[in-house]
Design a protein that fits this description.
- The protein is α/β, with parallel strands linked by helices and about 300 residues long.
- The chain has a domain at about 5-150 and about 185-215 and about 260-275: NAD(P)-binding Rossmann-like Domain (Rossmann fold, 3-Layer(aba) Sandwich).
- The protein has 12 helices and 12 strands.
- Strands 2-1-3-4-5-10 form a 6-stranded parallel sheet, with helices on both faces.
- α1 (about 15-25) links the parallel β1 and β2.
- The longest helix is centred in the first third of the chain and has 22 residues, at about 70-95.
- It is globular and about 60 Å long.
- The chain starts with a strand and ends with a helix.
């Protein structure tokens, strides 16, 4: 018998990879509405959509961090109230909920990785809106609700930092990139596999409900990520110039340290995600990223010199 899964926000950066991961699972029957078909701020629509599903993966979210600073109520309607609608519907229909959250629920003032039970303290409206969603899951689904915090996501099928760096490499000889924010670059395909494993473990009772940190092992900076992207793509990493966050002022404050610990995966008998360098190396072999890298190499200063 197949297990019915519902993936909300299925047309987004992560949602598409979750759909792809579940599509190759013969035991999963997947429904994947995009925002145009399911608005999670509509409680009646959510209640109807969840019916008949055993696992719900919530990839729907307001992701515009700076936009949330200007429109906190609108961001919270999606990231907080919308998640409450999903949690209530899951409670009514007996479904497991895997809800995606963020490292931005933390203040970013730590020096060691934040454990799953560390006190939260968002420094911006986006973080506050996501924390509201976490609290809704904990309140309404104490035994079947899973909050998976992730960060620094990149994927081959949409806009992401890695894709942007490779694109800019075709047009600029040097790039300035922030070197004083620390985090864990995480490949959406690797996270999708982890979510599928968590959903299956939740159904069998192997994984207890609660908070899990769905980020890569290790840590780096945005500058470090850009340089490693260039190195692995056959580009000169010295083209990336480190700068401080003050070089790019933004409406929303960014936590300086968003490194997360992964102990709850081990407690649940599941393997945490691989190191960020290994994930990036695997991601850059995918056709979309490989094409971007090839274009960047073809237009690099070395290539232009060789062709002159």
């Amino acid at each position: 018998m197949t297990t019915p899964w519902l993936v909300t926000g299925a047309h987004g950066l992560l949602g598409r990879d979750v759909l792809a991961e579940l599509a190759v699972d013969p035991d999963a029957a997947v429904t994947g509405p995009g925002r145009d078909r399911l608005d999670i701020t509509d409680p009646a629509a959510v209640h109807t959509a969840v019916a008949g599903h055993r696992v719900v993966v919530n990839c729907a979210a307001w992701t515009d961090v700076d936009g949330a600073e200007r429109s906190e109520a609108a961001a919270t309607a999606v990231n907080g109230t919308g998640v409450r609608h999903l949690a209530r519907a899951c409670a009514d229909h007996g479904a497991v909920l895997l809800h995606l959250s963020t490292d931005y629920v933390f203040p970013g003032d730590a020096r060691l990785p934040y454990p799953e039970d560390a006190p939260t303290g968002p420094v911006n409206a986006y973080g506050r809106s996501k924390r509201a969603g976490e609290l809704a899951v904990a309140e309404l689904l104490p035994h079947t609700g899973y909050v998976v915090r992730t960060a620094w996501l990149y994927g081959a099928q949409g806009s992401s930092f890695v894709a942007t760096m490779l694109d800019l490499a075709t047009r600029r000889e040097t790039l300035e990139v922030v070197a004083d924010q620390h985090g864990q670059p995480t490949w959406t395909r690797a996270l999708a596999r982890q979510l599928a494993a968590l959903g299956r473990a939740a159904l069998t009772g192997q994984a207890p409900a609660g908070v899990y940190h769905g980020t890569a092992a290790g840590q780096t900076t945005w500058c470090g990520l850009a340089r490693e992207t260039f190195r692995l793509s056959g580009l000169d990493p010295e083209r990336i110039r480190p700068v401080g966050s003050e070089r790019f002022p933004r409406p929303a404050a960014r936590p300086a340290f968003g490194v997360l610990g992964h102990d709850n995966w081990l407690r649940a008998g599941l393997t945490p995600l691989p190191r960020w360098e290994d994930q990036l190396a695997a991601a850059l072999k995918q056709p979309d990223f490989a094409a971007l890298a090839a274009a960047a190499r073809a237009t690099s200063p070395a290539a232009r010199t060789a062709g002159s």
